[in-house]
Amino acid sequence: MDHGGQPEKLSPILSDRVLVNGTVIPLTFTCDGKLRWTAKGQRCLTVEEEVLGFALEGSRIRIKAVVEKRDGILCFGNRGDLVRQSFVFEPLSEDSLRLWSQKLRDYIDSLGRPKRLLIFVNPFGGKKSATKIFLHDVKPHLEDADIQITVIETKHQLHAKEVAKTLDLSKYDGIVCVSGDGILVEVVNGLLEREDWSAAIKMPIGMVPAGTGNGMVKSLLDSAGEPCSASNAILAVIRGHKRPLDVATILQGETRFFSVLMLAWGLIADIDIESEKYRWMGSARLDFYALQRIIYLRHYNGRVSFVPAPGFDDYGEPTSYPGEPTSEKSPTQEESLKIQRHGYLGSDVKLENMHWRTISGPFVSIWLHNVPWGSEDAMAAPNAKFSDGYLDLIIIKDLPKLALLSSMSKMNDGSHVKSPYVTYLKVKAFVLEPGPRVEDPTNEGIIDSDGEVLARGNVTDKGDQKALMAYNKLQITVDQGLATFFAPVQG
User: Fold this and answer.
1) Quick count: other Cβ atoms within 10 Å of Cβ 350?
2) Could you read off the pLDDT of 272-303 as tens digits, one per residue?
3) Using CA of residue 262, residue 268, residue 269, residue 271, what is the dihedral sign?
4) What angle do CA 254, 244, 382 make, to 5 degrees?
5) Given the DSSP bridges, would you call strands 205-209 and 174-179 parallel, antiparallel or unpaired?
6) What pairs with residue 43 in β-bridges?
7) Sign of the CA dihedral with 311 first, then 313, 316, and 322 last
8) CB atoms within 10 A of CB 328
9) Pairing of strands 356-360, 300-308
10) What is the pTM of this model?
11) What is the longest distance spanned by two Cα atoms in the chain?
12) 128 — alpha (psi -120 to 50), left (phi > 0) or beta?
């Protein structure tokens, strides 16, 4: 909120004298969506960015807004922490009250904000704080914005996916996940397994950080220079701005999984999945287990093949399309496929006609990323874009442990990709052929996508999560801008 400076001469939508704290002052609503008045200097609120909603209280209008903690938010944008605050105006006549109410309602409605939201709250994720975050940070903002909400607290794994697959889309303007990235992935997969998937995937999705990693919401907020907080996240939803997001289709035989965040094999997958036993530590479990895995470093045999983006044609050696992966399917997977055939089948791009390159192992880590941040403190792929139609590929082969430790410590700002031991490029399509550990060929690895076990080879740590695919060749293609997300306006 601005306290000074001269307002530009703009034609007003409405200008009138109103009562504020017992004093009659001029109030102007300009065509650029700003409420301006004089009270200890020139004041203003930008409706699109700062006003959540308003309510009539007898003869008064209560404007419900968000302002900067210390003294109000600057009229032309601010990146600081925000708090809710009300401003009360009393028009001097009933006609004026009706006119102000109508003009404010018409303007807010013109912004295309959501009016009905389905909200998933995952009480089990991260430090089990999602319910508290929803009640303290999310719900009050939505009430101020007069948004109707339906809240579903997830009861078990794949609960959100089950709901998304059968949801009556006409009842909602968007879906919000108060959770980590896992519930988001369930929602996306549920929408894409519907018969009406092409309409369903256009449903805008919002994220509020309440999990261990929170890589997607961190990426969305950081792209606009905003801190990763629950209040900033729900404000992005309320304001209703949207952006497209690429979706990756991971294929093995007839089995498909839709990914929006990342795929990992080797070091990163081992840290992400095997550290689950330390979940009680919260996000610190990742750092704790990463140190263990660096000390007892594993190398994996295998091969990756890819279609490089323009400008990355010199990476790897030329090869032909490795062929579509096949797999042996368990009965439970067969059952799920009956549903999948009615949903989205993935990109129809002719992979055999594309120019493929290949790199052989041993590898320490293979990491594919769709967005810049893998978690709130790990900028895995600093050059990743939300809807460029490419995945960022980060490859680490053999290197000294101290160099690896140094690189891992630089993930907070993305500078790890500058290490001479890191290969970093963009790809349009990708095939992974995972193999056993070099140190112990009787043990294989884990393939992790968006924090879930996609495939688990013959490993010592069997874990609790069932794998969707076999530890064998799999293929990834990218659909540019297939999904839609609520996101803050870019600065």
Assistant:
1) 8
2) 888 777 666 666 666 777 888 888 899 999 99
3) negative
4) 90
5) parallel
6) 37
7) positive
8) 9
9) antiparallel
10) 0.89
11) 83
12) left
Sign of CA dihedral 39, 42, 47, 48: negative
Distance CA 397, CA 395 (A): 7
What is the radius of gyration, based on Cα positions, of the chain?
25
Q: Tell the burial category of 424 from Cβ atoms under 10 Å away from its Cβ (0-12, 13-18, 19+).
A: buried
The dihedral formed by the CA atoms of 400, 405, 411 and 417, expressed in degrees to the nearest 10: -10
> In which band, very low, low, confident or very high, does the pLDDT at 70 lie, cut at 50, 70 and 90?
low
Which residue reads 């992935």 in tokens? 185
Residue positions annotated with a catalytic role:
181
Q: Long-range contacts made by residues 222-225, C-beta under 8 angstroms, separation at least 24? A: 222/372, 222/373, 223/372, 223/386, 223/487, 223/488, 223/490, 224/487, 224/488, 224/489, 224/490, 224/491, 225/79, 225/491
Residue-wise pLDDT for 408-452, tens only, equals 889 999 999 999 999 999 999 999 999 999 999 999 999 999 988
**Is the N-terminal amide bond of 227 cis, ω within 30° of 0?**
no
**Tokens encoding 437:** 């550990």
Compute the residue count for the chain: 491
